[in-house]
Write a structure and sequence with these properties.
Shape: globular
Structural class: alpha+beta
CATH superfamily of the largest domain: Aminohydrolase, N-terminal nucleophile (Ntn) domain
């Protein structure tokens, strides 16, 4: 075993349509985290329910998982690297007793150690214990850390939750809600938080509403989750979304709502609907499955292609593929089969076996595609390596023509709000023209959904962050990236 090389994804072994691939080699934009919380005075099994909820949110992060539980006397936490099933077993779950729990699944960015960045973060301060689980990114973290370090704060983990804990300790005289309101006046960025004290559960959504967070109900228990799909798994009902800039505090007296004074325009991450969220989730009153299907139908209106059958890249292209096939009145087939038993890491094959390595993950149904004009539907192209291999596989299986159909606009710019995306020079649409991309992936044609078409499919023109698609950032980006972003934008303008 010691002589075997284990790798995440690389140019030869691309992870097809699965979030959580390590580093910038991923050929998809990758969500950073998922969070969950439950307050159940009469519920004696909050840990097990949180465990199942994290399973439902596993697509949002696969590098680490953790659960913290409060019993009224203190908080216990268990966390570690790996999938939810790797981190927890029956004995661990049984040992975590309480009436309040929060959970977290992590996608660790390139260069970050999952074990060091696993959450929830547990800390003690003047008024007791506190556990924090966070999804997103504080874009002014560097400046805030410098300010707090000058006042004696110590940082070890290097995560935004630790920064928030220090801010809350700094404002501890205001009470937990007052401290959060003060902290939100200082924090700039994208975030959804679940926080637990010894006796309370708290949910926080950034003023832009960039990261999703919703409220559910299971009997008398209140729940918080990044996505409503976790409620469905538990048999709970979706009550509503946490509003941008809202703080919800849940205790034995029920749910209480507070707001910060930051008045900004809503900017929900549009990639939640393109790729990140599970199709069975509702986010800000928009169903993800219906939105993706509408994107496919809209692309069919904008870019109809004469094909014999439409096939999706599983699983990310299924909903859009159904919509596109409906739009052009064409046969829809599952012409690519995904192997669901390939782990995130596996032994690197020899040079002569690399094609086998690719086909282990995704393989065409030759009898369906041979001699046919095929429209292949996917949600996005980031680096282009996946699309190139899929086109080649279909040609090798005898496809007469291969037309690549993308149900989102080109990804032209990096994200600075907690999404792990390549640098601009790794984004193929940030460097190449449409024709150059088509030539690179080897397709007979390449079509993207327009930005206007995307908003039309979502049923509203505004209220979204589409920075990776239009290079317009609604939230201030990190100071150490501003000059770089300015130069990249200038270069792109010159190219155009």
């Amino acid at each position: 075993m010691h002589n075997q090389q284990f790798v995440e994804s690389n140019d030869e072994l691309v992870n097809f349509g699965s979030p959580g691939v390590q580093g910038s080699k991923a050929d998809k934009l990758v969500e950073a985290c998922g969070v969950f919380g439950i307050f159940g005075e009469e519920c004696q099994d909050v840990t097990r329910l949180t465990y199942y909820a994290l399973y439902a949110l596993q697509h949002r992060g696969q590098e680490a998982a953790g659960i913290a539980v409060a019993d009224g006397q203190g908080i216990k936490v268990h966390k570690g690297p790996g999938l939810v099933s790797d981190v927890f077993d029956r004995q661990i779950i049984a040992s975590l007793k309480g009436k309040i729990a929060i959970g977290h699944v992590l996608y660790a960015k390139e260069g970050k150690t999952p074990s060091m960045n696993a959450e929830p973060l547990l800390c003690n301060y003047l008024h007791g214990s506190l556990a924090i689980a966070h999804n997103g990114c504080f874009t002014n973290a560097k400046e805030l850390k410098s300010k707090l370090a000058g006042k004696g704060s110590v940082f070890q983990a290097g995560i935004d939750s630790e920064l928030l804990a220090n801010l809350l300790a700094h404002y501890n005289g205001q009470g937990i809600v007052g401290a959060l309101q003060k902290a939100m006046q200082e924090i700039i960025g994208s975030y959804a938080l679940v926080i637990m004290t010894d006796r309370e559960l708290i949910g926080v959504r950034d003023p832009y509403g960039n990261r999703p967070l919703c409220i559910g109900k299971l009997g008398d228990a209140y729940l918080l989750s990044s996505e409503s799909c976790a409620f469905e798994v538990l048999g709970a009902e979706l009550v509503r979304d946490v509003e941008p800039g809202e703080i919800v505090l849940i205790n034995e007296k029920g749910l209480h709502s507070f707001h910060c004074d930051n008045h900004v325009e809503r900017a929900l991450c549009v990639f939640e609907f393109i790729y990140f969220a599970r199709p069975d989730s509702d986010i800000d009153r928009i169903n993800v499955m219906e939105a993706r299907r509408a994107m496919g139908r809209q692309l069919a209106k904008e870019k109809p292609v004469d094909v014999d059958l439409v096939i999706p890249v599983p699983d990310s292209g299924i909903a859009g593929g159904l919509g596109y096939a409906e739009g052009i009145n064409c046969v829809f087939e599952m012409g690519l089969i995904k192997n669901r038993y390939i782990a995130r890491t596996f032994i690197r094959p020899e040079q002569s076996e690399r094609e086998i390595g690719v086909r282990l993950k995704l393989n065409p149904v030759t009898k369906l595609v041979k001699g046919k004009k095929v429209g292949i539907v996917d949600d996005s192209i980031v680096r282009g390596t996946t699309s190139k291999k899929i086109v080649q596989m279909l040609r090798n299986s005898g496809a007469k023509e291969v037309h690549m159909l993308i149900t989102s606009p080109p990804v032209i710019a990096p994200c600075y709000y907690g999404i792990d995306t390549s640098e601009r020079n790794q984004l193929i649409a940030g460097q190449k023209s449409l024709e150059e991309i088509r030539e690179y992936i080897g397709a007979d044609s390449l079509s993207y959904l327009s930005l206007e078409g995307l908003f039309h499919a979502l049923g509203q023109r505004g209220g979204f962050c589409a920075a990776c698609l239009n290079d317009q950032y609604p939230i201030d980006i990190p100071s150490d990236r501003k000059e770089e972003a300015k130069e990249e934008k200038k270069c792109r303008a010159q190219q155009d």
